[in-house]
Each structure stands twice: as structure tokens, then as C-alpha cells.
């Protein structure tokens, strides 16, 4: 085991898979000589050359379409979005092509494509660079969606995504790249459809993902001191949602809080609540509590920006109110 940054974990995963499989290549803006906006591809062009670490023009719809075509012909492209917000420019290619072609071709084409990059509310990046697109893409059939939250799951998820024969979107949070944690030296893979039980507990189930995992764990430290015993689940997989792990937890706790950075209207939490109502409503002793970002464009002003997202004290207060 060794402690590395999250961006290094992603770089290691990319390097290992490119070394083992010559069909794997990376493309995107400034991924080559510059090494990527957050240094996930730093120096890889020296090892693999400019055709496998391919710098593209600022034309998301064009290079996304090229990547999908490459995937159809047997290559395994990794598209880095300089900021995930920019991938809205390639929404047509991702939805109508990447998500549908395996089905509409009757299985004649596989689409082994990974789309990854930074997103979420950073620190005064402005509205257009603070998008949370997970709910945008969650409705698209044919896609798999995962969100990493630690260096460990970042590496394991990316390696699994690269080897998958379906299009996978990996959401990385802009404020987690410098998170440092232990990662095994031996090779490992993580499933793309399983949640992680971060902490077992008996009082309340707190479901979260991405950066909010760390806000939740800060809240848990306070709650434990107050005598509460929360269970924490990191979704990791946003499509498909591992609803069974949530159901198993609710059989013990009977209370559910969902903490997300996504928008409240039509967000990931909204989908989870719908599935809970469909599958296990009778397990609940109280209504589900949903803690989400405000339904407004993210302000540039630092104090206003901070007010739009969920913070640990809000989670603490919600647990106390739910269990009172």
C-alpha cells in the first residue's frame, strides 16, 4: 500500500491499461504535452506518443464523435473533458450514438468508450464551470455512470471502465484531485454497479456519492459523539443505482437521508426516492430526507457559492431532526 493523490491514481490506471492494451488511447483538449488540466495524463505522451495521447481542437462534438467511431472499430478510447460542463456540447453524440449504437445495431457494434473529467462545484469557478451533469446523463439508456470519491475507488473504477464493452462516464470532482489516500500496489478492479458501505450503523442510512462522501463523514464524527450510530453508503454507481444495498441497510435503520451535490429537482436523490417508493416503502419509519444543492446557477461569489451546497452541519441537524 502507498498513499497517492487521486489524480495520480487515475494516471496510474490509464498508464497500466495503455501498457497492456495497445487499443487504449486518450484524447481531449491539452491531454498531451500539457498533461491535462489536472495532470491526469502528465508525461504519458512521452511514453506512448502523440497518436495515443491525442491533443484535440476545442470541438467537443467532433472529438466525441471520433471517439465513438474509434470504439466501434475496435479501439478503446478514453475521452477527457477539460471540464465536464463542456460535454454538453457533445450531448447528441453521447446520447444518440454512444448510448444507442450497440442496441440499434443489434449488437453488431460494441462501444468500449470511457468519458471522464472534472466537474462539480469548485471554488469560484462560476456557473458554467460548476455544473453537475450526472442527472443529465442518467436518463440516457445504454450508459453506465460512476462517480469516484477516493484515490482507491478512482483507480479501480477507471480500470474496470476501460475494459468494459459499453460506454462508461466517470465523474471526478474538481476538489478531490489532491485528496491523498492509500492505494494497493497490486492490480485490482472495482465493479461498476456496486455501492460501498463506508460505515455500518443502526440508526439512520445516509446515502451519498463523490465529494459529499467527505462532508457526510465529517458529520458522522459529530453524530457519533452525540450518541448516534449512522450507516453511510457511497453510491459510486449512479447508473445503475445499487438499490439493493440501500434496501439491505433500511432493513436495519428504517430511516434514510440522501446527500448529494446534484440539483434537487430531477436529481439522483429524486430517482432513489422513486425507487425506494417502488421497492421498499414499508421499510421506512419516516419520510426520506433529501439534502441537495440549490436549484440556481452556482454563484461566483464565494459566500453565495458556499450557500448553494450541502455542508456537514446541515447533515447533523437533519439526522437529529429525523431521529428526534
UniProtKB/TrEMBL annotation:
Select a single GO molecular function from the record's annotations and give it: pyruvate dehydrogenase (acetyl-transferring) activity
Q: Name one Pfam family in it.
A: Transket_pyr
Can you tell me which residues the record assigns to a coiled coil? none
Catalysed reaction(s) here are:
N(6)-[(R)-lipoyl]-L-lysyl-[protein] + pyruvate + H(+) = N(6)-[(R)-S(8)-acetyldihydrolipoyl]-L-lysyl-[protein] + CO2
Instruction: State the InterPro entries in the record.
Output: THDP-binding (IPR029061), Transketo_C/PFOR_II (IPR009014), Transketolase-like_Pyr-bd (IPR005475), Transketolase_C (IPR033248)
Residues of the Transketolase-like pyrimidine-binding domain: 4-179
Known cofactor(s): thiamine diphosphate
| Record CDD domains | TPP_PYR_E1-PDHc-beta_like (cd07036)
Looking up Gene3D superfamilies in the UniProt record yields:
3.40.50.920, 3.40.50.970
* Keywords from the named record: Chloroplast, Metal-binding, Oxidoreductase, Plastid, Potassium, Pyruvate, Thiamine pyrophosphate
**Function noted in UniProt:** The pyruvate dehydrogenase complex catalyzes the overall conversion of pyruvate to acetyl-CoA and CO(2). It contains multiple copies of three enzymatic components: pyruvate dehydrogenase (E1), dihydrolipoamide acetyltransferase (E2) and lipoamide dehydrogenase (E3).
> Which NCBIfam families does this chain map to?
PRK09212.1 (NF006667)
- Assembly with partners or alone: Heterodimer of an alpha and a beta chain.
The protein's name is Pyruvate dehydrogenase E1 component subunit beta
Taxonomic path: Eukaryota, Rhodophyta, Florideophyceae, Rhodymeniophycidae, Ceramiales
Q: Quick one: which gene encodes this?
A: odpB
Amino acid at each position: 500500500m502507498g498513499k497517492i493523490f487521486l489524480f495520480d491514481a487515475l494516471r496510474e490506471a490509464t498508464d497500466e491499461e495503455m501498457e497492456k492494451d495497445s487499443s487504449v488511447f486518450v484524447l481531449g483538449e491539452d491531454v498531451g504535452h500539457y498533461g491535462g488540466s489536472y495532470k491526469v495524463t502528465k508525461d504519458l505522451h512521452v511514453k506512448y506518443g502523440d497518436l495515443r495521447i491525442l491533443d484535440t481542437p476545442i470541438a467537443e462534438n467532433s472529438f466525441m464523435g471520433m471517439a465513438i467511431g474509434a470504439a466501434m472499430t475496435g479501439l478503446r478510447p478514453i475521452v477527457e473533458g477539460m471540464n465536464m460542463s463542456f460535454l454538453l456540447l457533445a450531448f447528441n453524440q453521447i446520447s444518440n450514438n454512444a448510448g444507442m449504437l450497440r442496441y440499434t445495431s443489434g449488437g453488431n457494434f460494441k462501444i468500449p468508450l470511457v468519458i471522464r473529467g472534472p466537474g462539480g462545484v469548485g471554488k469560484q469557478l462560476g456557473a458554467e464551470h460548476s455544473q453537475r451533469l450526472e442527472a443529465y446523463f442518467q436518463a440516457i439508456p445504454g450508459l453506465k455512470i460512476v462517480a469516484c470519491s477516493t484515490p482507491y475507488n478512482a483507480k479501480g473504477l477507471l480500470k474496470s471502465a476501460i475494459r468494459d464493452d459499453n460506454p462508461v462516464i466517470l465523474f471526478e470532482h474538481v476538489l478531490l484531485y489532491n485528496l491523498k489516500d492509500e492505494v494497493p500496489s497490486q492490480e485490482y478492479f472495482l465493479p461498476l454497479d456496486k455501492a460501498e458501505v463506508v460505515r455500518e450503523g443502526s440508526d439512520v442510512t445516509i446515502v451519498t456519492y463523490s465529494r459529499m462522501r467527505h462532508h457526510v463523514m465529517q458529520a458522522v464524527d459529530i453524530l457519533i459523539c452525540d450518541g448516534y450510530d449512522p450507516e453511510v453508503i457511497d453510491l459510486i454507481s449512479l447508473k445503475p443505482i445499487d438499490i439493493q444495498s440501500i434496501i439491505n441497510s433500511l432493513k436495519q435503520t428504517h430511516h434514510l437521508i440522501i446527500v448529494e451535490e446534484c440539483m434537487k429537482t430531477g436529481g439522483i436523490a429524486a430517482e432513489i426516492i422513486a425507487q425506494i417508493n417502488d421497492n421498499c416503502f414499508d421499510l421506512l419509519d419516516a419520510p426520506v430526507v433529501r439534502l441537495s444543492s440549490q436549484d440556481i446557477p452556482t454563484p461566483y461569489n464565494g459566500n453565495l457559492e458556499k450557500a448553494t451546497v450541502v455542508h456537514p452541519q446541515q447533515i447533523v441537524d437533519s439526522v437529529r431532526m429525523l431521529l428526534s
